[in-house]
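Notes from the 1:1 (GR / supervisor)

We went over the backlog. Supervisor wanted to see one worked example end to end before approving the batch request, so GR pasted a single chain during the call. The sequence is below; no edits were made to it. Supervisor asked that the structure be written out right there so they could see what the output format looks like.
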Amino acid sequence: MLAVGYKGGYMEIGVGNPAVSVVLPTCNRPQTLRGTMESLGRQSVDFSFEILVVDNGDPTITRPLVESFEQEYRNRIPVSYLYEARKGSSYARNKGLENAKGTILAFCDDDELIDPRWLSVIKRNFDAYPDVVALTGKVVPIDGSVLPQWVNKDVQGALGLLNHGDEGIVFSKTGTVYDSGKQDHGSFTMIGANMAARTDVLKEIGGFDVRCLRSQDRELTVRLILAGKKIRYVPDMVTSHICDNRTVKSHFRKWSRMEGQYRALYQYFELFTRQGDIGPPNKEVPRILGVSRFVYRQFLEQVWMCVKYNVKLRRDQAFVHENRAIMLLHYIFSSQRIHAKKTTDQSSRNISLKRGQL
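Structure output shown during the call:
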């Protein structure tokens, strides 16, 4: 294979597998995909990389565009078109994982612009921190995107944005450690729009959870941390996301509802202690219909905070708590359904065993 990198206006050609495989899932977005592909073509690197575009939509829409970039980049960057019929970004990303030749996987979305230093920052951090298995970075609004005043860091996930600040952070099962030495506890997630992982580790842990049509990046984060792995947040690993068509409150409410439903699949809100430590759900914790009692308490607290801030006419703050309450409510409903199904299935198995003993 001929692998090509680009730096400083000239091409460096090497033979062998690429150092990094960029996995780019897409679904019927040729207008924005073009911009993403063009920004990947402007990467400033001194190593080889490949681009794997995984089409999860209509191939008649996407394939011609990808093939045009295959021709345009053929003397610089290997570009491959892959098709995944099963719907969902987890299936698409796993397709990329199966076909990747690089020892590092980098993931982005099809409605972003990628910083020219993105891949070099990813490679440099993996080289500098051999005990780190995954990276994530900032996802900022694309230049010119005007966000409503009520969009703050507490609800920015609905826009596919992420910003943990300007300091490097390592997240692990034992807590959060900043580059300055400060330590902390609490929840954290990678974001699929800007993340990278060591290929062998991602294969070992089973790739992305195909049950999750949403929240698959958070589920993967949880699985890696519970497995004792380290994840690093890199502030200069930057992508820019298109936000304009999502900045209405109805989108945020829908996002919160669906996030609650999918987080129930891996019991997200029941993984954390009061101190912020993470671990498997405690089976000894009191439960109501299969859901830890403190989750109900968190829901009621968010409802109360929403009411309180609305009374004080602090609508922006009230909206943050409203979305949190929506997420918790649908987490509870979905968790109850999962519990009921498990109980029914177990009862059916017990009846079958008893019949077999007669």
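Supervisor's comment: The radius of gyration is 22 Å.
Batch request approved.
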